[in-house]
Amino acid sequence: MSACPPYAPFFGFAGVASAMVFSSQSAIGAAFGTGKAGIGIAGLGAFRPELVMKSLIPVVMSGIIAVYGLVVSVLITGSLDPAQPYPLFTGFVHLGAGLACGMTGMAAGYAIGHVGDACVRAYLHESKVFVTMVLILIFAEVLGLYGLIVAIIMHSSTSTIGCPAELLAS
């Protein structure tokens, strides 16, 4: 089995797709968090419109998760050069990095959406909930940040991996 088969980039591109799809672009992750928190904000705005701006924090934090997926996708895509050999090991690591960022982004988006919706609705009745909401949202956001950090570490571990010279000569 070759260390650099022609199908190895498939796994790298699968990592790019995983980071983007799970973390941001579909009804998963950031999109879910934005939509779920937005429903709560719309309900709050009907009764106390002056609180809407302070209640946008969950939506902003959901958007940050989408940026995590974008960063990992750009890093992995930067390593995919058709003119250079691409080791199978690198493809698997890039797939793992994309999944790590994407799945933690999805979990963080779900957490932010549910917490944002519930806390924004509670904020309508009790303003003391605001600080608690921000703290819980920070802890939910950190889940996505952990995935980003792991993905960056995984990606950086592939910088010294190459195809053996004897395989490139054949």
Concise overview:
With 170 residues, the protein is mostly helical.
Report the principal-axis shape.
Answer: elongated
SSE series: HHHHHH
- Kindly state the percentage of residues in helix: over 70%
Low-confidence stretches: none
Distance, first to last CA: 13 Å
Number of distinct beta strands: 0
Q: Gyration radius, to the nearest Å?
A: 20 Å
Number of helices: 6
Strand content range? under 5%
Largest sheet: none
Structural class: mainly alpha
Calculate the mean pLDDT score and round it. Answer: 87
Structural account:
With 170 residues, this protein is mainly alpha-helical. 76% of the residues lie in helices and 0% in strands. The protein is elongated. The two termini are 13 Å apart. The mean pLDDT is 87.
